[in-house]
Specification:
280 residues, mainly alpha, Vanadium-containing Chloroperoxidase, domain 1, two-stranded antiparallel sheet, 3% strand, globular, disordered N terminus
């Protein structure tokens, strides 16, 4: 996934939005490289994505607790393949189009997928604390995935059984390990964090978190077991984040921010999204 239009960056010191000189490729290893001091308020590419809350010493390493992915000839591996093949029937359906929308992972826009479940649109302009918090959580989840993705190096399902996917089979997608799913992990982490910030929306947010992960299977770029592993990593990271004082402070600020935003704005277009979601 690339930013084909000029990527917009916000320069805090100048208060200006400028265009970057080149588009940069999506890659999970870029998510945790931006130092805190250089972290922009608004970003649209992975090189400038905000870094996480956790240091390397504090961050869980998925390779230390995730079992290896299912072997292709195991019952679970065979079930994964059966599910992948069955998803061919979803091509061109409303659920397929939702999976395409869910594939957009570059924050701050990616969290639009949770607008209806949250009952508010989260943007750097209207909810800057919550936007940055979710971006930093995503970076922590991505960093926790790194060793498992690289060491297990599970091939994407479409590499074993060629078929249509809901997104372009970009080079990074082909080369990056399928297990665990970083997209599913990010979505599950957002659902967990947002449900804590908005407890009255917990059920809707959990449904959206599940659906968001399932979109990776519908899209035919992940096995179902990749999604489950990604969600386990996300839950582990979110639990660890609750021992980080900066994260807890930002959670309090984001909670107040979202409470105010929900009183002043209401998202549009949600009935149609719920109807598609219910089609799963």
């Amino acid at each position: 996934m690339r930013c084909f239009a000029p990527c917009l960056l916000f320069v805090p010191a100048l208060g200006l939005t400028i265009a970057s000189a080149e588009a940069r490729p999506h890659h999970h290893n870029a998510l945790h490289r931006q130092p805190a001091a250089a972290r922009p308020v608004v970003w649209t590419d992975f090189e400038h994505h905000p870094g996480g809350y956790l240091s390397a010493a504090d961050r869980p390493d998925a390779k230390t607790f995730l079992p290896p992915p299912p072997a292709p000839d195991s019952p679970r591996g065979q079930a994964d393949r059966t599910t992948y093949l069955a998803m061919k029937a979803m091509v061109g359906t409303p659920r397929w189009r939702e999976a395409q929308a869910d594939a957009r992972i570059e924050l701050p826009d990616a969290v639009d997928a949770f607008t209806c479940a949250a009952g508010v649109r989260i943007t750097p302009k209207t909810t800057p604390v919550a936007s940055l918090l979710l971006a930093r959580v995503m970076s922590d989840v991505s960093s926790a995935d790194d060793h498992a993705k690289d060491d297990y190096a599970r091939k994407r399902p479409f590499l074993a059984d060629d078929g249509e996917t809901c997104v372009e089979k970009a080079d990074w997608l082909v080369k990056q390990g399928s297990y665990p799913s970083g997209h599913a992990g990010a979505g599950w982490a957002w659902a967990l964090v947002l449900s804590e910030l908005e407890p009255d929306r917990t059920e809707a947010l959990m449904r959206r978190g599940i659906s968001y992960g399932e979109s990776r299977v519908v899209c035919r770029v992940h096995f179902a077991s990749d999604v489950e592993a990604g969600q386990l990593v996300a839950a582990t990271v979110v639990a660890r984040l609750h021992a980080n004082s900066t994260f807890l402070t930002d959670m309090k600020r984001a909670k107040a921010e979202l409470t105010h935003a929900r009183k002043t704005t209401a998202p549009a277009g949600c009935p149609a999204e719920k109807a598609v979601d219910g089609e799963r």
